[in-house]
Amino acid sequence: LQLLVFIAATVMVIAGAIGVVVRSRAVHAALSLVLTLFGVAVHFVAMEAHFLAAVQVIVYAGAIVVLILFVIMLLGVDRAENLEVEPLPIQRPLAAFVGLAIVALLTAAIFAARDSGPLQVGVGIDVEVAESSAADVAPRVTSDANIKQLSRNLFGDQVFAFELTGVLLVVAVAGTVVLTRRQRRSEEKV
Amino acid sequence: MSPFAVTAPVPTSTWYLVLGAVLFGIGAVGVLVRRNPLVLLMSIELMLNAVNLSFVALSRRLGSIDGQTAVFFILVVAAAEVVVGLGIIVAILRRRPGATADDLSELRG
To answer: Is the pTM of this model over 0.90?
Structure first.
């Protein structure tokens, strides 16, 4: 069953990601992005990160994609982009090569790191064994242990960074208001 | 455990890491190829999600909650980044409808 969930969610993620890149209309790309984000949320649930799965759906699929769609509708930029035009002739093959190189490099690094053994848990044990034994022993005790653990870390060890995110959000909101307002004023002047 | 788990291979964190690498590669190609600034923003979201996936997978492998805390902060920063990015895009597209990423070279002083 875990395998089926993994395959289904992976198909969702990859199909959505390819859709984001190849769809010519921005609205279609945004809806493909929703598919990808839900797939990642399913992966989070499969990895027992329940809180992050909920936050992923609420913040990403709920807020960010709605914001993107809102901007698309507001500006009326939903014209089909002509993807046949290639302003730089060598760009696409080069981009595909760079993408494949990134994937190959990361995959090679992952397998090299796996073969060199897990970092802390069970030196000398196969990764799968170490994983099933060490992973989530505590979180399986109760259903909300993941949230409790996360909140203890977040509001205990990382509380200063947590406060800083509040500052960051305020700055981002204020900056956006200033950005969009100044533009309107200069348009009125012109 | 379901009977499937005995016969079928259970997905390990390596699978999730490889999936994260593939997702990151697709997002990088999107950033390199597309010219619509909104789609560029979405491709950046794809790459952030790939990193989130890797963080959660490694947090599970190492049995530590720190990775999930990092994902939480990435989510917050991504939200702020999208807000600011969309503000900039709105400001640019109001002035020049249909601007592409190439037109942004006008921003040079």
So the answer is: no
